């Protein structure tokens, strides 16, 4: 999907030193090296992020802090990504959700999108793909909220 030509990136260039973090992202994956890889990638782009090792840990963190985007694996112990996605959409509807999976079967992706995920990423992924997907998910979610508020002209 291509972003509109008038869209301004909310992520900082990796060469830009930014004091403020424009997007907050919660990374949820049971594999420690995936969490570290994504956290390092987002940090290099000046994106505030935290990590959780499963859905239950993520919900605990979401109860204490607001995140703009949650990027979650689908297959995890304790609480899978589908259950986490459903819960986030019910309790934190202003949070965008991106699902990622090593199993790119159409039904998993369709189910995640039907449950309200804004985007998905297939593992293995490219760094720039992850950045673009998070950016699009955040942009889509903000536009949905603006659309839901409606426009009134006096």
UniProtKB/TrEMBL annotation:
The modification 4-aspartylphosphate is found at residue 73. Keywords: Phosphoprotein, Transcription, Transcription regulation, Two-component regulatory system. Pfam families: Response_reg. This is Response regulatory domain-containing protein. Residues 24-138 form the Response regulatory domain. It comes from the Bacteria. InterPro entries: Bact_response_regulator (IPR050595), CheY-like_superfamily (IPR011006), Sig_transdc_resp-reg_receiver (IPR001789). The keyword Ribonucleoprotein does not apply. The lineage of its organism: Bacteria, Pseudomonadati, Bacteria division LCP-89. GO terms for biological process: phosphorelay signal transduction system. PANTHER family: RESPONSE REGULATORY DOMAIN-CONTAINING PROTEIN, STRESS RESPONSE REGULATOR PROTEIN 1.
């Amino acid at each position: 999907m291509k972003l509109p030509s008038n869209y301004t990136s909310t992520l900082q260039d990796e060469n830009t030193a930014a004091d403020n973090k424009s997007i907050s992202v919660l990374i949820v994956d049971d594999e420690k090296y995936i969490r570290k890889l994504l956290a390092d990638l987002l940090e290099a782009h000046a994106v505030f992020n935290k990590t959780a090792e499963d859905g239950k840990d993520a919900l605990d963190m979401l109860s204490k802090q607001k995140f703009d985007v949650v990027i979650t694996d689908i297959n995890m112990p304790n609480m899978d990504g589908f259950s986490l996605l459903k819960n986030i959409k019910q309790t934190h509807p202003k949070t965008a959700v991106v699902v990622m999976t090593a199993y790119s079967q159409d039904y998993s992706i369709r189910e995640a999108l039907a449950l309200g995920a804004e985007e998905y990423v297939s593992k293995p992924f490219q760094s720039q793909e992850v950045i673009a997907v998070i950016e699009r998910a955040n942009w889509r979610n903000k536009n949905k909220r603006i659309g839901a508020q409606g426009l009134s002209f006096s």
